[in-house]
Design goal:
Chain lengths: 376, 1232
Amino acid sequence: MSTNSLNYEGCNFLRQRLILATLSGRTVKIKKIRSKEDDPGLKDFEASFIRLLDTLTNGSKIVVSETGTNLLYQPGILIGGNFEHECNPQRSIGYFLEAIIALAPFTKKPIKAILRGVTNDQIDPTVDLIRLTTLPTLKKFLGTDEGVDIKINKRGAAPDGGGEVLFTCPCRQKLRPIQFIDPGKIKRIRGIAWAARVSPAVTNRMVDSARSILNKFLTDIYIYTDHVKGSQSGKSPGFGLTLVAETTNGAFLGAERSSSARGSGDQPSVPEDLGKETAKNLLEEIYRGGCVDSTNQSTTALFMALGQQDVSKILIGELTPYTIQFLRHVQDFFQLMFKVDPVPVTEEEEELNTGGEKLLLTCVGVGYSNVSKAIL
Amino acid sequence: MEDKEHKPYRPRAAGIKARKKKAKIETDDKEELTPKQRNPKAFAIQSIRKTEKTVRRTLDLNVKKQHIPLVDRTPIEPPPIVVAIVGPPKVGKTTLLKCLVKNYTRQNLSNVNGPITVVAGKKRRITFIECNNDINCMIDVGKIADLVLLMVDASFGFEMEQFEFLNICQVHGFPRIMGVLTHLDTFQENKQMRKTKKRLKNRFWTEIYQGAKLFYLSGMVYGEYQRMEIHNLCRFISVMKFRPLHWRTTHPYILADRMEDITGGELIRQNGKCDRKVCLYGYVRGTHMKNKQSIHIPGCGDFDINDIQATPDPCPTPDKIKKRSLNEKERMVYAPMAGVGGIVYDKDAVYIDVGGSHSYNLTEDSKPTNELVSNLMDMMNPVDEKMTTSKMSVFSGTQPMTADDTEDISYPLEERVEGSDGRIRRRAVFKDGDELNDDSGHEDGEDDDDDDDDDDEDEDEEDDSEDDVPPVKKSKVSKSNKEEEFAFADSDDDLEDELILKAMKLKKQNDDDDDDDDDDDDDDEDDESDNEDNSDSDTDKNTKKSKLKKSKDKIVNDEEDSSDISQSDDDDDDDDISQSDDDDDDDMNEEDNGDDIEEEEIGQGLRWKSDLVEKAAASFKARQKGKINYRKLIYGEELGVADEEDKDGDELGGLFKVLKQKSDQTKNDRFSINKTDCSKYFPENPQDWSLEEVTASIKDCFITGQWSKDKDAKARLDLDDELYGDFEDLETGEKFTGPDGEKDDDDDGEKDDDGEDDEMKKDDKGEEDKPETERKKTKAEMTANERRTIRKERQKEAFDEQYDLKDDSAYYDSWKSDLDKQAKLNKAEFESMPDELRIQYEGYRPGLYVRIELHDIPCEFVTNFDPTYPVIIGGLQNVEGNVGFVQARFKKHRWYKKILKTRNPVIISLGWRRFQSMPLYSVQDHNFRQRLLKYTPEHLHCHAAFYGPITPQGTGLLAVESVAGREPGFRIAATGVVLELDKSLQIVKKLKLTGFPVKIYKKTAFIKGMFSSALEVAKFEGASLRTVSGLRGQIKKALRTPEGAFRATFEDKILRSDIVFVRTWCPVEVPEFYNPVTTLLLPRDQKKSWVGMRTLAQLRREKGIRLEQKADSIYKPVIRKNKIYKPLVIPRGLKKQLPFKAVPESLLRKKESSMKRVAVIKDKKEKKITNMMSMMQTLYSHKQQQKKIALKQAGEKRKKEIKKDEKKRNQRQKELKKEIFKQIGRSEKKKD
């Protein structure tokens, strides 16, 4: 009825736009997708993502121009349910999974998705990181632990993938508002050092080097080693480390590194260096601080915006560019503005060394309710 | 009346009764025992079962009472309550409304049109609205009314309209309903009246709830209801409480009380039917209304809000709440459509607001208003002449004007007038002469910017303000001047940019890179917008320039002043523009206008000046700290270049520019349009974590680090010790002190701060010292006893917390308290913010009076505007603007005479909308199959699926078959509730395919005629078949010939005459038909006759076309031939073997029938013989009888003889035995 559609240019933030369009029910037109590049139009992984949206929804209208440089997306109703999706190995499953997580609470049926593709790569948040940091955030909004899970059936490193992940999530009528302004102190650090199709010793080397840095701060560190072999190890060799710091109030800050992909042209990764790098990344993340880490800022902001008409507050570290753009998009789609204030440091806390500047993200939810879920 | 007739009750003063009573009272006084004490047995537990039952029941009742707790979202200053007056015609609605308004404001309304807002009390305002007898109107009013006064003509009784309205209310959330009985004076007899009252009351109660308030208006005095009764009614209204209704708390809505057409006159002249721009005014209700939100106007259609602004409240509650009741000034009435005070009402924009009766009393005050009006009229005439459409606007000096104009020039006076009418009028109030000049100047200026506005006065006004300069400046600067200035600004612009660049570069070195990245993206957007709208950017640059100047050298001159003004304007702009799209120039301009207007309203009295110092200070501070304004960082892009609140922001703006250029070169920007889309953040210049200082900077993020005072366990323990640690042994007088605070602290410091610098330690100590002394004092003041009591209380609390019996309501209570906390947070979060900012974060909160601008409204909305029809602006949530398939639980109303047919169009009221759609009715089978029904069941729920707007589940809906005219009977056809929404639905209907056997083998048969091709058969392989005679079977495989035939097996051999069928389910399409009811667009006389799509039957009836009947479907007498069966034949051999029982009865019967009796006729001789024979027989039998008797006698004789003989023999034997035994005895003796 209301025919106003939103127009954008370029393929950057395609996911954000399509997700928000799906949730808000507004039509989106995207033009000039790589129009001036040698390889114009949508890439395979984007096409794969659009296909994923198509399986997640019912009645969506997706029109891609012949050159692939223009896209029209008229969203339908979120269905969810059981489905399988072949994720394009150009991007890791995290790219797709992040989108699914954003939509999962608002589907008609609880989601049970099997995703196949690259589980760990260097660009996107890996499945491990999502499991360890994003899911706790999601659980806070859902108000339950039940049925929210990611199971890694097979690992698949870049570039060929071959991994398999099972994601389950219940659906909700409404999300609950969140007030999470005190992250507490970090009480433990956990992690996963994984390796596939390489020597099992690699994992231990990574763990040792990471510990060498982190032990100065905290003693409660335990890094699981996950060396997979055979059918579970995917098609390409690789290894990586994911570290998560858990605070006393249940905030999770994560950092990770994966080895450079075979045939990518980068220098081969050394496990010791990678371990150290990851540990430093984690420290960086801790320096930024907040109740969610930089990767999950946008997801948290989305769920805060989609809450009831109540005030939600969360403390975060510095905004990432991705989040900034996300907040702008939220305004486009939901006419919702976030209040972002630097947290004033009280006198008592002034002498504490708690890292960089913290921001308080506040918003009033738009009163979103899940229209696809049936009531009896 | 009736009360007078009662005899007063007089208790007995003497006699037995009196004495008894007296005695009783005395005893009662003596022993005040509770019933439990008096009769303990009655309260003892007699039966466990019974007790258990009662306990359970009380618990059940308790739980039943609980509502699901909701977050309290009522605003601090709520919008006026909507009180709707509803009833059939001639029941006294208008009279009541007039009386109510009179009671509140002491004013007589001449005519009642549209909503009327009055101040009812210190904290309460009421909007009255009269609902006419149109069902469209009733539906709309039912959706927005908080309280309904349901008028009933007592002399007539309830009418259908009332019940219809009750049903409408029920579906849409059930507002409070109060009945009002009128026409009670028509009753001749008292008894009759009492009976009627009782009857009506009971009926009313069954409809609403037991004890619902029913009000009686006994009669009329001089055409009005009795004053006291109205007064009482008002009191009831004022104490009424409302429960939040779900739909309304989740959707913003506005009951428009004023409408203005702001389309350019030229456009209308060119095309009288062009789409209009319309302004609607009203209080925001429900929840927060957002800019650019999509809305629905019931009876008109869906639109997007083009612009929304908060305007000053035209009918505010008194500022200071004193203990007295409202005075005359505060009793305000606001009814733009109703022409309060006897002034003309025009089609699009007019109203008059007469403040209160005081305006009549004070002649001085009334005079200027008249002048004003006349002035305005004079001034407008030329404009009117220009306009082709004749529009007249009139204003009176309003209450605030009269009241406050003398001392307060700026704010209220201007505000009031503006609130009451279009903007021109405001000017007129200020300075008549100036205003005229102003106007003319403006019109000129306007021509450049906007071509559509010159004719329309309202537009002019807007544009005036648009150009963002307050009147002072305007009057100075002529059109040409202005242009020059802009040109100048343009040329200057580069220079200024350079300056900024320099500043930026300096700053950049310090700044983080990522921030810069963000910024520059913003900036390039800005650039674009710059190019787009020159005028806008011009002003912006102006401001920039002025700011720079200001910061560098503080030269103050007139020019500077003016630019400052513009700056302050722009400050406001930031706030508002962020919500606006920058689609095209016009939009931008208009928005600016709006903002400026608002600005002026708020800060007319040179208020911006007072802020300047603070602003400067704030900006300075911000600069000092080097902090980023995150709002600008994120939303700056939309704010445009105009956005400069402080120096810092300015710098950032500049920063964008610099980096933008850089990034353009490098193409390394994260925001560049075709960059990789990735949520992971890679810090571009990570810190060096091998350095000691860097690692120290996050030291306290870990539990091993230092804690803030209030959280540190050690510190808290110490605190406790100080309070409770030391005690005095009272017996010995010995004193035990806790560990000394200071000493201990030192120790702690050493322990904790091992790795820390000495400085830190000192700081700690210094800090902790202070509170230390305070605490000691308090401790010293306390006696030991006090301390002990405190400790005990604490212990008790701790104990209670853990061990107190929490009853079942604990869960409920905690839930409630959580929500209370949330509600408090909601209220507190934005309370201290300035309104413009707050609006951006929250939206326009309920209670604000807003002006909403809508574009592309059909011209009929304006030309056929009728104030008696409520104009509701219903906000839609995100997905609700879309259309899809809605599945609802649906029930035909019991009172509706007909049943509803599938696919017949009905008019559905759902959410805000009224629309026509074609529902399919279905029921859900046990396997969740949705089976199509042809008609709605009589008294059962069914499902209805229709194509309509996506509306959240649980929303009530209502169906009527027609809204046109007044058909006899009850009009509400059905009610229901939305269950599910989707973009496709699976509704199926049963389809039986029949076929005939071609060839029959034993259990196999070839069936033809069911399908038309082998492919079809293949699809149905394995499907179960049935024959009419009840044999079951299965489809096996297609045959080659004939086409569509197949092989099937059955459980037994079927007959050639059997019809074989297969039961299938075939999906049914829901027709995609959605037709909004557009009653507001119809001309006045046709408003009640909206007809959408008609049913086939209606069409036939209207055109007089008879349905052609098929010859097949005509009923004819059925003639059946009697079937003749062959007789049953059993072979002889078999028959012989059959047991008698197994022989069919028919066979047996046949045998019998063959031997028939023959009548014997005897001749004489034979007769004689037979006679003889019978005689002989008789004799013979007699002889035999005699013989028998003789024989018997002989036998008895013989028996006697035998007996005698036996006796003798026995005696003989006895004697003989005696003899023998004697002899034996002798012989034995001998032996012995």
